[in-house]
Structure prediction request, 256 residues.
Amino acid sequence: MADQPDRPLQAERLTALFGQKAAVRDVDLGFPRNTVTAVIGPSGCGKSTFLRCLNRMHELAAGATVRGRVLLDEQDIYAPEVNPVQLRKRIGMVFQRPTPFPTMSVAENVAAGLKVNGGYSRAKAGTLVERALRGAALWDEVKDRLDGSALALSGGQQQRLCIARAIAPGPEVILLDEPTSALDPLSTQRIEDLVQDLTRDYTVVIVTHNMQQAARISDYTAFFYMGELVETGPTTEIFTRPQQERTEAYITGRFG
Prediction:
């Protein structure tokens, strides 16, 4: 029997609700270490809600609750003793539109995640900021503009800045919620190249409405429909030999 892949992050029978309405229902899904998993499906199928459950962002919405478990290194992130702020340092998130802090410089934006714990000297913080910017393939473009406004960067640079901010605290997992949907083709390509590079150090989960993007950059794909996980597996198999009729219908453009 083949060894099972190491999955540092695992959802078990996860249901996400808004009031009494379930947006995601009874999902079991694990994410192999140092890989990219793409979550695809039509608009309103629960992709982004599911993603937000993986680092407890879902519970910030009014009336939002979660049932089931999400395990990070075998610990339930919804256990009472887990601090959600500290958790989000271990599971970073980048949103659909770039969200740099408008009153902060480039360097201050990246360092913002480090200040949750504090205790870093100025020199140490500077080292971590540089490391994060290099990890986000942005250092060479901004090294002479670290004290300048983050809003002076292009849209694609701002999104890579947000990725740098997410990786600065040294997370294990990075969640990306349609990170290229507001970007031009060149910026999109840079983000896609970066996502694949990030798997050297992180486990990546990306929600995307772009099936070509999922096929290009992911190792695994999970197809959601009407709040349910229909099918998951290696990306090449999902796109060439799907097992479920609904998966095939979505991939071939019959709906969605």
In short: The longest strand covers residues 21-31. The two ends are 37 Å apart (CA to CA).
